[in-house]
Amino acid sequence: MVKTKFFVDNNGISTFVINRPEKRNAVDYEVMTSLEKAISEVKANPHIKALVITGAGSQAFCSGGDISAFHALETAAEAESMLKRMGRILYELLILPKPTVALLNGTAVGGGCEIAIACDFRISAAHSEFGFIQGDLGITTGWGGGTILFEKLRYSDAMEMLTSSQIYSVERAKQVGFLSYVTSYQELAMRCEEWLLPIITKPSAVLTAYKQMPIAKWSQVGLWERMEAEIDHCSLLWESEEHKQAVNNRLQKKA
Ligand SMILES: CC[C@@H](C(=O)O)C(=O)SCCNC(=O)CCNC(=O)[C@H](O)C(C)(C)COP(=O)(O)OP(=O)(O)OC[C@H]1O[C@@H](n2cnc3c(N)ncnc32)[C@H](O)[C@@H]1OP(=O)(O)O
C-alpha cells in the first residue's frame, strides 16, 4: 500500500494524505520524503492555491514519528539528523506562501500535533483528541513544533499543553485556540472545502502578501534558529535512559 497520496482538485486545493491507518498514520522516512516533495510542488505550482494535510481513516490524523522505525536511532547525533530533517520540512510548511490546513480526521499525538500546528488552520472531526505527549516519553517536541506552538497559542496555554502532555478533547483544544473549526467526521471534507472557498477565490498575490506578514516576523525573531535549539534539546534527551525505557514500554504495549 502506498504510504502517502497527493492530489489537486479543480479549485486548486491540493491534498496530502498520510496513508498508514494501520500504524495510525505514523511518519517514517518515506512519508517525510513525500511531504517534502508535496510542499515543493505546492510552492512551485501557480495553479495550486492551498494545501490540506490529512490522514487516512477515522482513527488518527497522525501518531507522530514512527517509533518502530526511529527506535533504531540511539545516539543524540543519530536522532538529530532525523529530527532536523523533519523540523526543516515543518519550517517549510510554516512559511509556505499559500494557506495551509491540517484536516484532523482523527487523533493527533506527538509529532502529529507538531504537523498540525505548522499549518495555518486546524479543522477537526468531533471525535478527535490531541496531545503533545512527548513529555511522557522523556523527550520534548523534536520537530520544532513546541516553538511554533508558542508563536500561535497564548503563552500559558502553550506551556500547559506542552508540559502536561495531557490529551485534549476538541472542546478544550478549541478553547485554547488550537482548533479553528469542528465538524462531524462525515462532513469533514465538505466543510473544509466550504471553509477554504472564500480564501482560495482571492488572487494568489493577495494570499501570498498576507502570508508574508507573519513570515517576515518569524524571520526577524529567528524562528528557525529557535526551532533548531528545540531540536538540539530533544536530541540530547533522546539518548537518555528514561526515553529509551518509555519507548520500549510503548513498543511492548506496557504504557
Ligand atoms: C519521533 C518524533 C517525536 C516528536 O518529535 O514529536 C514524536 O512524535 S514522539 C511521539 C511518538 N508517538 C507515539 O508514541 C504515539 C504512539 N501511539 C499511540 O499512542 C496510539 O497508537 C494512538 C495514536 C493514541 C492510537 O491508539 P489506538 O487507536 O488504540 O491504536 P493502537 O495503539 O492499537 O495502534 C495501532 C497500531 O499502530 C501502531 N502505532 C501507533 N502509533 C505508532 C507510532 N507512532 N509509530 C509506530 N507505530 C505506531 C501500533 O503499534 C499498532 O500496531 P500493531 O500492534 O502492529 O497493530
UniProtKB/TrEMBL annotation:
GO terms for molecular function: isomerase activity; methyl/ethyl malonyl-CoA decarboxylase activity. GO terms for cellular component: cytosol. PROSITE patterns: ENOYL_COA_HYDRATASE (PS00166). GO terms for biological process: fatty acid beta-oxidation. It catalyses: (S)-methylmalonyl-CoA + H(+) = propanoyl-CoA + CO2; (2S)-ethylmalonyl-CoA + H(+) = butanoyl-CoA + CO2; (2R)-ethylmalonyl-CoA + H(+) = butanoyl-CoA + CO2. It is found in: Cytoplasm, Cytosol. Its main location: cytoplasm. Its EC number is 4.1.1.94. InterPro entries: ClpP/crotonase-like_dom_sf, Enoyl-CoA_hyd/isom_CS, Enoyl-CoA_hydra/iso. Keywords: Cytoplasm, Isomerase, Lyase. It holds the Pfam family ECH_1. The keyword ATP-binding does not apply. Decarboxylates ethylmalonyl-CoA, a potentially toxic metabolite, to form butyryl-CoA, suggesting it might be involved in metabolite proofreading. Acts preferentially on (S)-ethylmalonyl-CoA but also has some activity on the (R)-isomer. Also has methylmalonyl-CoA decarboxylase activity at lower level. Belongs to the enoyl-CoA hydratase/isomerase family. This is Ethylmalonyl-CoA decarboxylase.
